[in-house]
Structure formats: structure tokens, C-alpha cells
Amino acid sequence: MVHPFYNRRINKLFSGCVDMEKLKLNYWVDVLLVVCLVVVGVTGVILKFAFISGEPGAGRSIMFLGMTKIDLLPWHEVLGLLMVILMVLHLVLHFNWLNCMTRRIFSKG
Fold it and tell me: Which of 13, 50, 99, 100 is most deeply buried (CB count within 10 A of its CB)?
């Protein structure tokens, strides 16, 4: 008896009650967020531990995977900013869910 009920719920989910374009947009936003998170994390670790110093001029002559600190820093910064923009978009896409859950959690009862 669970199976027919479950199928009705799935059919209802994808039969127009949920905007498929919004789901696709959300999927790609999440994929890009994960890619940015990984790249920013890896470049952050490399910037912290692979180069001698954060002082201007110090440690910039050291190469890591064929790149200097000057080559790597713009990637880290631009993808970090893109990650912030994607996170704001992610929150906008989930605004109704966040609103509903916040009311449910903080309701009196």
C-alpha cells in the first residue's frame, strides 16, 4: 500500500507543482557552489602553506605547479566572490522553504 501512495507523491512533485526550470537552476547553482568551494579551499591551502610569506615581494619567486602567488591569488579571490554571489542566489531560491521552516521552528506550540 505504500508504493501507490509514494508514486502519487512523486507524480505530484513533478507534474507541475514544482517548477522544473527552478529545479534545474538550483541544481546548477549548487554544482557551481561546490566547484567554487573546492577550488577556493584548495587555493587557500596552497596560498597558506606553499608560499613563504604574505608580505609583498616575499615568497613570490617560489613556483607551485607552475604558478606563483601572483598567478594564483586572482583565481582564489574571483572564485571566492563568485561563491558569495552563488550563495546569495541559493538563499533566494530557497527563501520560501527558509521562511516556512523558521516559522515552524519558532512557532508557539
Answer: 50
